[in-house]
Design brief:
3-stranded antiparallel sheet; 2 domains; 3 strands; mainly alpha; elongated; 310 residues; 11 helices; single chain
Length: 310
């Protein structure tokens, strides 16, 4: 059975003792291993974050995930000595050590596979689930059911893992179709005659390709991550988190559709302009505006929850 969770007075007392006494070697070794376990996962994901397509927000995860984790850890009131006692009492399990070594060997094998073919996403996904699974097992050994507090930290990491290629391709196709139809409808309602062929809009004979880059997949995934991360940082309720996530998805679609509408009208008004430059600048403006609106929605939900609780 897990040790009982300390009372508030005991947690404060234990925290003060841990702050004034030298660090426990067992606890220090555990935290070093825990950090290295996730650090090697972040190193494996870094090339995906660095390719400049859809997952560059992942570089925030090595900073946000530890911050959120430590905030959750403090709720348990376990200081260095308490952690060492629990590890000493439950860390001698042969099954636990077998899980540790199996995960480490699997991570090494997956890193070799990733080095041979960095575009294959299945090893990255297996790597992430194996790492988070071992972390959950270790925390369960220490805190018992208290491990459920860390679900948000685990999901924060998983949101930075690339989607399966087929799922991502299907998502891009659906988003592209939605943005294309919305842009055509809006411009035609304003009396601007447009023609389309496949994923291309023709405005005054100038083709505007609405494909991968205009699908909104980057805003879509970044909006999901931003909404979830903000909800975790602000410790919003599940209802507010759901509303914030839905708000992020809606804003991502609307802002990207507005971007395509702007590009169409810019092509009509300035057919000889540098469309590539306008395309990139409008993309950054759309993404930045989406983040600001999501932050505003999170702030508003936080104020509403604070008013109700007060």
């Amino acid at each position: 059975m897990p040790d009982p969770i300390p009372t508030k007075e005991a947690a404060v007392s234990g925290g003060e003792t841990g702050a004034t006494s030298p660090g426990n070697p067992t606890a220090t070794a555990f935290w070093f291993f825990f950090a290295a376990l996730h650090g090697q996962l972040f190193l494996a994901l870094a090339p995906t974050w660095n390719d400049g397509t859809y997952y560059d927000y992942g570089f925030l995860v090595p900073f946000l995930a530890p911050y959120c984790f430590l905030a959750r850890w403090r709720e348990g009131g376990i200081d260095g000595d308490g952690l060492a006692r629990r590890l000493g009492g439950r860390g001698r399990s042969s099954g636990l050590w077998a899980a540790v070594w199996t995960t480490l060997c699997l991570a090494l094998l997956l890193r070799l596979v990733q080095g041979a073919d960095s575009g294959w996403r299945a090893p990255l996904q297996m790597h992430a689930f194996a790492t988070l699974g071992l972390a959950a097992l270790l925390l369960h050994r220490i805190e018992g059911r208290g491990v459920l507090r860390y679900w948000g930290c685990a999901l924060l990491v998983l949101l930075a893992v690339p989607l399966p290629s087929q799922t991502e391709a299907a998502l891009i196709r659906n988003l592209t179709a939605g943005v294309l139809e919305f842009a055509l409808f809006y411009n035609r309602m304003l009396g601007l005659p447009l023609e389309s062929s496949g994923e291309t809009i023709f405005a005054n004979g100038v083709p505007l390709q609405v494909s991968d880059g205009c699908s909104g997949i980057r805003s879509f995934q970044s909006g999901i991550f931003a909404g979830f991360a903000l909800g975790e940082l602000m410790r919003l309720s599940l209802v507010s988190r759901g509303l914030l996530l839905a708000t992020g998805l809606g804003l991502a679609f609307l802002m990207n559709a507005a971007r395509v509408i702007y590009l169409v009208r810019h092509v009509v008004a300035h057919p000889d302009s540098n469309l590539a430059l306008v395309h990139d600048v409008s993309g950054y403006v759309s993404l930045g505006t989406t983040f600001l609106l999501i932050a505003a929605a999170g702030w508003l939900l936080g104020r509403i929850e604070g008013t109700r609780s007060g």
